[in-house]
Amino acid sequence: MQHDMFAESRSAVRIGPGAMLLGGFASAEARALLAQIPKLGAVSPFRHMTTRNGGRLAVAMFNCGETGWISDRRGYRYQSLDPETGNPWPAMPDLFRSLAGRAAAAAGFAGFSPDACLVNRYDAGTRLSLHQDMDEQDHDAPIVSVSLGLSATFLWGGALRADRPERHRLHHGDVVVWGGPSRMTFHGVDGVERGDHPETGPWRYNLTFRRAQ
To answer: What domain range includes position 192?
Structure first.
């Protein structure tokens, strides 16, 4: 099922039990959010992490916050130090934390305070296969995902990887929140539109907020 109404109505739409797409929720703060990314990247640069099998992840990323998600030959996990610099991840900006908390509350999850933000940078055409966010110790807290820049198709699946996903168009400033019964739903990105966004140029950025510990 395709949902393309957000560019016009900027509506809030429930996509599952405990899951909402908040169309345009971050639009007013998008420029300020984007301005923080190069500052954070000067401390912990974007990189393409490797998988346990030695493959290269298609999405460039780094973390900010008290802890950060990493992938390498040892597998997936969170740790407080950036393995590339040996230093702590950059502190999460107050604007990031505030936005995540307000978006979570709008979706029914009051009191959310993330300790990790994964900053992803997608080139045009980049895909992210269906997966679960399962490396966090706290599965009671929701996931808050903020889209900035080029539009993309968000895949919203089910409890099993084989479940056929719904397809939702995500635009600049849209936020997806999922938790409760939907916390372990398989999800992914089925490609980023090629283009030249006025704020991000040839890229899509995604801020994924989590309570990892």
So the answer is: 2-210
Place of tokens 């916390």: 183
Q: CA-CA distance, 120 to 206, in Å (whole number)?
A: 5
103: helix, strand or coil: helix
> What pLDDT score was predicted for residue 195?
93
pLDDT at 8 over 80: no
Asked whether the predicted pLDDT for residue 172 surpasses 50, the reply is yes
Token pair, residue 163, equals 């479940």
Separation CA 15–CA 6 (nearest Å): 13
Extract the tokens encoding 149: 């820049």
Instruction: Classify 122 as helix, strand or coil.
Output: strand
Strands (E), 80-210: 116-123, 128-131, 143-149, 152-156, 166-170, 175-178, 187-192, 203-210
Predicted confidence band of residue 200 (pLDDT cuts 50, 70, 90): very high
User: In this structure, what token pair is assigned to residue 165?
Assistant: 């996903």
Tokens coding 78: 């969170």
CATH of the domain at 104: 2.60.120.590
Residues 6 or more apart from 42 whose CB is under 8 A from it?
A: none
Specify the number of domains making up the chain.
1
